[in-house]
Design brief:
Immunoglobulin-like; alpha+beta
Length: 209
């Protein structure tokens, strides 16, 4: 079909007559009368120089209307508002996770060594107590003796007095260590023979000469 042929048709919205190039049939364009987009449907081709001039004019008008319609659409395009604007928020979850992890408990300080109950002849008698043996009738006076001197001690003997509920002396308990090293400590265990014993008291400590 020659490029100089034009066709006529009608707008589907307002019914106005439209003249357009026959090659554009089947496409959509803005109506020069109402501005609405309509399907270009031709009735019959129009030939000749007059038709060519009219066709060019119509084409220019159509292009102008399309540009105007595009400008109107751009002007009425909604601008983003605070409600629909998407804001990227960058967070660092590491501090939060770290805050939820409980801190390791501080190590408990080691208890200081017990104060001696008595110091005599270079020996320190540490706190002692009565200790029954589970499943039997045996009872011992248990505790520690520390050698506070820089020399060995030989034949060390510790002695405790035993008392009943009336605080009456009812016997004694002793234990013996053959050698006690310099600044060493001896864990003694003196057997209690009196069955009514409820208390023990330190009497003394000695060593072989």
């Amino acid at each position: 079909m020659p490029d100089s042929e034009f066709a006529k048709g009608g707008c589907r919205h307002c019914g106005g007559h439209i003249e357009f190039p026959a090659a554009a049939a089947g496409q959509t364009a803005a109506c020069p009368h109402c501005g609405q987009l309509t399907l270009l449907e031709g009735w019959a081709p129009v030939t000749g120089r007059g038709a060519g001039r009219i066709g060019w004019m119509v084409a220019v008008i159509v292009l102008v209307l399309v540009a105007v319609a595009a400008g109107v659409l751009l002007q009425h395009r909604p601008t983003p508002t605070a409600a629909n604007r998407v804001t990227a928020v960058v967070t660092n979850p590491v501090p939060e996770v770290a805050a939820k992890i409980p801190a390791a408990p501080a190590p408990e300080p080691e208890p200081p060594p017990p104060s001696p109950s008595a110091v005599t002849n270079g020996f320190a008698i540490m706190p002692y107590h009565l200790e029954p043996v589970p499943g039997s009738s045996l009872v011992y006076v248990v505790g520690s003796v520390r050698n506070n001197t820089p020399r060995q001690r030989f034949g060390v003997k510790v002695e405790f007095g035993l008392f009943d509920t009336n605080d009456t002396p009812i016997g004694a308990a002793t234990d013996y260590q053959s050698v006690l090293e310099p600044h060493g400590e001896w864990r003694f265990k003196a057997m209690v023979m009196a069955s009514k014993t409820v208390a023990a008291r330190f009497r003394g400590i000695a060593e072989d000469q």
